[in-house]
Amino acid sequence: MTFPRNLLYSRLSSLNKYSRNVNTSAVRLQNVQQVTAKKRICIVGAGPAGFYAAQYLLKQLSDCTVDIVEKLPVPFGLVRFGVAPDHPEVKNVINTFTKTAENPRLRFFGNVSLGQDVSLQELRQRYHAVLLTYGADQDRELQLQNEEQKHVISARKFVAWYNGLPGAEQLQPDLSGRDVTIVGQGNVAMDVARMLLSPIDTLKATDTTEYALEALARSQVKRVHLVGRRGPLQAAFTIKELREMLKLPNVTTNWRADDFAGIAEQVEQLQRPRRRLTELMLKSLSEQSKRTATAVDGKQFLPIFLRAPKAISAKEIEFAVTQLQENAAVATDTTECLPADLILRSIGYKSSCADPAINFDPQRGHVRHDQGRVLKEGEGSSVEPGLYVAGWLGTGPTGVILTTMNGAFAVAKTICDDITANAFDTASTKPGFEVANQRIVTWDGWLRIDQHECEAGKAKGKLREKIVDVEQMLRIAGV
Ligand SMILES: Cc1cc2nc3c(=O)[nH]c(=O)nc-3n(C[C@H](O)[C@H](O)[C@H](O)COP(=O)(O)OP(=O)(O)OC[C@H]3O[C@@H](n4cnc5c(N)ncnc54)[C@H](O)[C@@H]3O)c2cc1C
């Protein structure tokens, strides 16, 4: 997964100045049944794809209402539970989502899970159109023996742990050893490496959960190996993330000179972003040879290329040395073992099938669709009328928030076009969402949780202290 943030963040931040001044009258209105509205649209998942699609639909269709159904009591998906706590500027997109949620034609139903509390069939009966945007919350596995051992965990779970996803506090990663080996070199891997190597004082002001801060303060981790199957020219991390690593105080970055054989000669032919990234790696490598010994108490960041994971044991991970053949990594017979008190697997996310009625491709880990229109199971190119998919659930887990935004806008436009073309029924009356005996968190309820978290954070000198217990969230939300 790649997320080149360079342009994205400055653009999104300037678009969205964070303001806590919530239009309470608009919020109150959201619970009023919108009997006059003609088209009822349900969006499943309150992450970026869901909110951006809602924004587009509400703007383009003046006679529609949008209900967002979200599994958790709280909104924003990976913006809250994925984006690194030391990148608060990225989370400014929450301002735009909040504005969208204040629209009286939008209702938020938190704590309602598709497949558990409501079925796809029910939603399709109750709405003219349903848009699935429930993301990718599983991780890809290495498929190696011993992968289930306690010292092997997914980067996804580690990220969820420091970001306070309900249930993730149970993870308790063992940070008592010196060496962590991360398999994978994308920006999620870089986020995790940075969290492990950053001085604790810089993390204290962020919204990192308190239990994670305590564990990171006790951490004995001194060396983080970041291992990839391919070479420096294929590195999946981006320049911003590398710059941040190179600037971390009391952390030395050590490259392997052998990994860069023949790389300098190719720099001139590279496209600009790849060239700049490669130049930065080469510059850092050349500075390293001039450096005197690493400070004894210092930490080390160790990027290693051309190694494919082969076997896991108690304190080590064995890698096959690879060679590049037409950009693909091919394992050789030579192997190398790296020390690993903790192994973090960071080779990508995948979606799950939340409801058996969804035409889901388990191999690729996403919903089968044609430009956002969900395909009928086993019927070639014919589509399910009024059923759509957007975000990582449709594209697979690639791309940044900006990419997700563009994709969600495109699918929302397809919905509008299909309405104009009468591609599905919008004439009949639809009742919208109703669930008996369900503790539903409304937008007002979320605002109460938000206020509580911000106040708790302020008392500790942090941006916010996230609540991780669902029951406590529901209590504060007043349900
Ligand atoms: C660790 C990490 C760090 C990242 N950092 C950055 C970054 O710094 N900058 C950047 O631009 N991009 C970043 N990204 C990428 C960005 O987060 C994604 O592009 C974006 O979140 C995808 O949006 P989505 O709406 O498809 O999915 P999600 O954000 O995952 O939202 C899906 C929502 O659906 C809900 N849901 C799940 N199952 C159900 C169900 N059964 N019923 C109802 N609701 C359900 C989830 O709770 C969630 O709220 C990062 C991604 C990761 C994994």
Automatic annotation (TrEMBL):
Pathway: Steroid metabolism; cholesterol metabolism. One of its GO terms (cellular component) is mitochondrion. NADP(+) binds at Q185, G186, N187, V188, R229, R230, E241, G399. Signal peptide: none annotated. One of its GO terms (molecular function) is oxidoreductase activity. It comes from the Eukaryota. Keywords: Electron transport, FAD, Flavoprotein, Mitochondrion, NADP, Oxidoreductase, Transport. Its cofactor is FAD. FAD binds at A49, E70, L78, L114, W392, G399, V400, I401. It catalyses: 2 reduced [adrenodoxin] + NADP(+) + H(+) = 2 oxidized [adrenodoxin] + NADPH. Its EC number is 1.18.1.6. One of its GO terms (biological process) is steroid biosynthetic process. It is found in: Mitochondrion. Belongs to the ferredoxin--NADP reductase type 1 family. This is NADPH:adrenodoxin oxidoreductase, mitochondrial. The gene is Dmoj\GI19640.
